[in-house]
Write a structure and sequence with these properties.
The chain is an alpha+beta fold. It contains 24 helices and 25 strands. Among the domains are: 3-71 and 244-292, Beta Complex (Beta-clip-like), CATH 2.170.270.10; 103-205, no CATH class; 294-332 and 437-500, Dna Ligase, domain 1, CATH 3.30.1490.20. Keywords: Ligase.
Length: 697
């Protein structure tokens, strides 16, 4: 590659690097030259109780005087990192050394747990002869005795778990000699020993991987790259990487003397490196430092919150105080006065025979596919349409003409973006039982970390779910117990951290959530009496659909998607199809000691109404900023609202989704779209029939 070509291809990455270093970087990349060892050296315990990187060159390093390539020891994604580690013992060994993880401690823990487990097992067998025996023992006796597992299990129970005695009862005749018994006992003892050693080795391996998974967030860095999905759309994905021993040994400083950043080199293929260059003069023996905190975090408290994962709770008291102050403010919020919102009364009118058909323009596939009303005519032009239904964000509200209806409100991201929904609820109501405590990790990092530390200090289990601001289908969502990954996840884009529901109401032992379709219409001030607030129409479709996890719920094993998540129709998972009427019937049988479903549904409706009552009244950007009635067009929107139940069937609104895919709803109810369209505009069909499908709030 020529130098000019290098500059052209990498111009955006080079923009932040001093121009004097471009040519040395080009040369080192072209030669794959890692020459940091000629200038730098690793120290241990000087001054930190870990590795650090120091200048060994006699005359030190000069500001912008050189640039060094750093290799990446490991590139991964959080969802695949555990599997990679389990499959790569060489990588585990390298990272264990790099992260200074003690293997000896693991061995001692395994040995102690084995002793404890063996003692407990012995005590259980001797005191409870009818207790189920270990499956591995059953399989061993069945194999050695050439009998079924059921017979082997019975023999073990009869012999109080003694493997040799169980085998004797199955295979040895009373007149067999003692030598045969001795040989058998030796063989079985050897097998048992090998099994224990294998289990101990596997546990040791798992423990080391767990420690690496915990420590990796102190070493990992991230960058974005573009990929093209099967539909041809370009999207961004994030990669996490750990630099080699040189890069990973750099210490943090609020006033760093070096820049360390990723550099994606497009030369012999595409290769990711990191680069280091000094931004201050560093004398011989001086430690190289970088700023661990992302550049977008400026606030001192937010910086302290981010650095908690490196500083071992150094500023815990200060951050806990931030959380406690924030909590007091939430509790002091005056409850939102909902009576100032009114629900319009629907006039049940019929479509007049001979009247012009309702002209519909849509870019939404499920709408175009399922629209079957005789009074609705599909048109190809926005200008011709009475009703516009877009699947993408609409921006050109000023181009709409009199009489047109559009399926979006201006600024409806105030409820469809997760961080905005949380802010709206907090502003209008403070803390409410129908919404989980949520933090915007861009603007509320300090109170979030304070809350996490407060929980730890008061013995409350920390389980949090981390979500992107505006992605659906369960994308980039993780459940975490440790603080480090929660803090670091914000580095890959805007995220929220939300308290995970630890006590969900279950259906047949599994987690579930409920998807409701909600229609919002007419948000404007009451004519003639502004003190009466705003009018709006809000309708909840009576039919909802149920999304079930595939495995029984336990508050552990958070990497197991099918245990903790309910969205199964976008991956290679089994999808449970369950009609809402069947769900209600079974739910009331399973939870006969709890509320009737009519009471639960009333609570769900009230929670949904509370959200929109606040959104309609609150001005932009917090709310929808009720539309001026003088505008020529009318707005409506349908939203997918996900609800969970916790404790004694308390509803929790999980999120509000923009432009939900209602293909499944159309399959469950062939009249679904027809009812929606008619409720939006009575010209479409029979309004009396359509409104019967809704709970009008």
């Amino acid at each position: 590659m020529e130098y000019k070509q290098f500059l052209q291809i990498h111009q955006y990455q080079l923009a932040s690097i001093p121009e004097t270093l471009w040519e040395p970087l080009f040369r080192k990349l072209g030669q794959d030259l890692f020459d940091a060892g000629e200038y730098l050296e690793l120290h241990y315990g000087d001054p930190l109780d870990k590795y650090s990187l120091h200048v060994k060159k006699e005359d030190g390093l000069k500001k912008h005087g050189d640039i060094f390539l750093v290799d990446h020891a490991w590139t991964t994604k959080p969802e695949t990192s555990r599997a990679q580690l389990l499959d790569n013992p060489q990588l585990v060994e390298r990272l264990t050394s790099m992260m200074n993880i003690s293997v000896d401690d693991d061995e001692e823990e395994v040995e102690e747990e084995e002793k404890t487990g063996a003692a407990a097992e012995s005590e259980v067998v001797s005191n409870f002869p009818d207790m189920e025996v270990d499956q591995s023992m059953v399989e061993l006796v069945a194999s050695q005795g050439h009998v079924s597992e059921q017979r082997a299990k019975i023999a073990l129970q009869n012999e109080n778990g003694d493997i040799v005695a169980a085998l004797m009862s199955l295979t040895l005749h009373p007149d067999h000699d003692a030598e045969g018994l001795k040989n058998l006992e030796s063989a079985i003892g050897g097998q048992v020993k090998r099994d224990k050693e294998a289990k101990a080795e596997e546990k040791k391996k798992q423990d080391i991987v767990n420690k690496i998974m915990s420590e990796m967030w102190k070493f990992s860095q991230t960058y974005e790259y573009a990929v093209v999905d099967p539909s041809g759309q370009t999207k961004k994905e994030s990669a996490w990487y750990i630099m080699d021993e040189v890069g990973s040994s750099m210490a943090h400083s609020d006033t760093p003397n070096c820049v360390c950043a990723p550099f994606i080199y497009v030369g012999r293929g595409t290769v990711s490196y990191s680069i280091i260059y000094p931004i201050e003069d560093i004398p011989k023996g001086g430690a190289l430092t970088r700023d661990f905190v992302p550049a977008d975090i400026k606030d001192p408290l937010s910086r302290k919150a981010y650095l908690q994962i490196f500083n071992d709770n150094q500023d815990a008291a200060e951050l806990i105080a931030v959380y406690e102050s924030d909590k007091i403010e939430d509790n002091e919020v005056q409850p939102f006065d909902q009576p100032f919102t009114k629900t319009l009364t629907n006039t049940r009118v019929q479509h007049k025979d001979g009247a012009r058909k309702l002209r519909l323009y849509t870019t939404t596939e499920w709408v175009a596919t399922n629209c079957k009303l005789a009074n609705v005519e599909m048109v190809d032009s926005e200008d011709q349409a009475d009703l516009l239904w877009f699947s993408q964000d609409f921006k050109d509200f000023d181009k709409l003409i009199k009489g047109q209806k559009i399926n979006q409100f201006e600024n409806e991201c105030c409820i469809t973006y997760k961080q905005n929904l949380a802010a709206l609820i907090k502003t209008a109501y403070g803390t409410v039982p129908w919404s989980s405590t949520t933090y915007n990790l861009t603007t509320e990092l300090a109170p979030f970390v304070g809350h996490y530390l407060w929980n730890a200090e008061h013995g409350h289990r920390n389980v949090w779910i981390c979500k992107p601001w505006n992605l659906a289908r369960g994308l980039q969502i993780t459940i975490q117990e440790e603080l480090a990954p929660l803090v670091r996840m914000r580095d890959t884009g805007p995220k929220i951290a939300q308290e995970y529901i630890q006590t969900p109401v279950l259906y047949d032992g599994r987690k579930f959530d409920l998807r409701y379709i909600v229609l919002l219409k007419s948000t404007h001030k009451v004519e003639g009496d502004p003190s009466q607030g705003f009018e709006f129409q809000l309708m909840v479709y009576k039919m909802f659909w149920i999304r079930l996890a595939n495995q029984p719920f336990e508050l552990e094993d958070f990497d197991n998607y099918e245990k903790h998540f309910t969205v199964m129709n976008y991956g290679n998972y089994n999808l449970t199809q369950l009609l809402y009427t069947e769900f209600i019937e079974n739910f009331e049988k399973e939870h006969a000691d709890k509320k009737k479903w009519t009471e639960i549904q009333a609570d769900i409706n009230e929670a949904i109404k509370s959200i929109f009552a606040a959104a309609v009244v609150k001005p932009q950007p917090v709310g929808l900023g009720a539309a001026d009635k003088s505008q020529p067009y009318e707005a409506f929107s349908i939203y997918g609202i996900d609800v969970m139940l916790k404790d004694e069937c308390q509803p929790v609104v999980v999120e509000v989704n923009f432009s939900p895919d209602c293909t499944r709803a159309c399959k469950y109810d062939p009249e679904f779209l027809n009812n929606i369209l008619t409720a939006i505009d009575p010209r479409a069909g029979d309004l009396n029939k359509a409104l019967d499908a809704f709970n009008v709030l």
